[in-house]
C-alpha cells in the first residue's frame, strides 16, 4: 500500500454501490494492472464535469451550453412533449426507466433524492423550490408523483402534496400495478405503463 493508493481507494469507496473490496479492485486495476486506462478515465471525468449539468427547468441531466446560458435537457427542449403534464421522479435512472417504457409524453421533474431525516435530507436538499416555481408559472395542469412506495417516498409524496402543490394543480400518483417497495428504476416497461395508465388522483 502507498499513500496515493489509499487515497484513490478512499475516493472510490465514496461512490454509490462500491464497498471496500470493489474499491480496492478498481484502484488496483487503474494504478497497477492497467495504468494506461487512468488518463482516459480522468479525461472523461473532467469532460463530464465540465460539460454535463442539471437542466434548469427539471433537474434532468443536460449539456451545459457553451454560451453560458442555462442548461436545458432534451425532454424540456422538445416541443412535441406535453409541457403541462409533469411527472415527478426521485432520480434520473427513474426518469430513464419511464422514458424507456414509451408510455409517457409529458415532461419531468427530478427531485434528486427523497426526504430522509435519518440521512439528513430535508426539503432544502431536494429540487423542490423549482417545482413550486413551475407550478406558480401557471404552465402546469397536472402533476404525477412517480415515487416508490417505501416510508421515505411516502413522506416525500405527502410533503409535496401539502407543502408544494397545496391544491394549485391536479395531483395524481402512480402505484397500481407496482408491487409494494418496487423501485421505479427497476420496474419493467409493461409494469410502468400500467402504473402510469392507472394513476390515482390525490
Ligand atoms: Zn429538463
Structure description:
The structure is a single chain. The protein is an alpha/beta fold and 202 residues long. The protein folds into two domains: 49 residues, RecR Domain 1 (Helicase, Ruva Protein, domain 3); 133 residues, Dna Topoisomerase Vi A Subunit, Chain: A, domain 2, CATH 3.40.1360. 43% of the residues lie in helices and 14% in strands. It is globular. The structure holds zinc ion. Zinc ion binds next to helix 4.
Outline:
By secondary structure, this protein is of the alpha/beta class. 43% of the residues lie in helices and 14% in strands. The protein has 8 helices and 7 strands; from the N terminus they run H-H-H-E-E-H-E-H-E-H-E-H-E-H-E.
What's the SSE blueprint?
Layout: H1 3-13, H2 20-33, H3 37-51, E1 52-54, E2 61-63, H4 74-77, E3 82-89, H5 92-101, E4 106-110, H6 129-136, E5 142-145, H7 151-165, E6 170-173, H8 189-197, E7 200-201
Parallel strand pairs: 3-4, 3-5, 5-6
Antiparallel strand pairs: 1-2, 6-7
The structure holds zinc ion.
Zinc ion binds next to helix 4.
Instruction: Please give the order of strands in the largest beta sheet.
Output: 4-3-5-6-7
Number of helical elements:
8
In the residues, how many domains can be counted?
2
Question: Strand fraction band?
Answer: 5-15%
Q: What name does CATH use for the topology of the largest domain?
A: Dna Topoisomerase Vi A Subunit, Chain: A, domain 2
The biggest beta sheet, please? 5 strands, mixed
Amino acid at each position: 500500500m502507498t499513500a496515493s493508493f489509499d487515497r484513490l481507494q478512499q475516493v472510490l469507496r465514496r461512490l454509490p454501490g462500491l464497498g471496500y473490496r470493489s474499491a480496492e479492485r478498481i484502484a488496483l486495476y487503474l494504478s497497477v494492472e492497467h495504468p494506461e486506462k487512468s488518463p482516459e478515465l480522468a479525461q472523461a471525468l473532467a469532460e463530464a464535469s465540465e460539460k454535463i449539468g442539471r437542466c434548469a427547468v427539471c433537474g434532468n441531466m443536460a449539456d451545459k451550453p457553451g454560451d453560458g446560458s442555462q442548461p436545458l435537457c432534451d425532454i424540456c427542449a422538445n416541443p412535441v412533449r406535453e409541457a403541462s403534464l409533469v411527472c415527478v421522479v426521485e432520480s434520473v435512472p427513474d426518469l430513464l426507466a419511464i422514458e424507456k417504457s414509451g408510455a409517457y409524453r409529458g415532461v419531468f421533474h427530478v427531485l434528486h433524492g427523497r426526504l430522509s431525516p435519518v440521512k439528513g435530507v430535508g426539503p432544502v436538499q431536494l429540487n423542490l423550490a423549482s417545482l413550486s416555481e413551475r407550478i406558480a408559472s401557471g404552465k402546469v395542469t397536472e402533476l404525477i408523483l412517480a415515487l416508490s412506495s417505501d416510508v421515505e417516498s411516502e413522506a416525500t409524496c405527502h410533503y409535496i402534496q401539502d407543502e408544494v402543490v397545496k391544491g394549485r394543480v391536479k395531483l395524481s400518483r402512480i402505484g397500481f400495478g407496482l408491487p409494494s417497495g418496487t423501485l421505479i428504476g427497476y420496474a419493467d416497461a409493461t409494469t410502468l405503463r400500467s402504473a402510469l395508465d392507472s394513476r390515482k388522483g390525490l
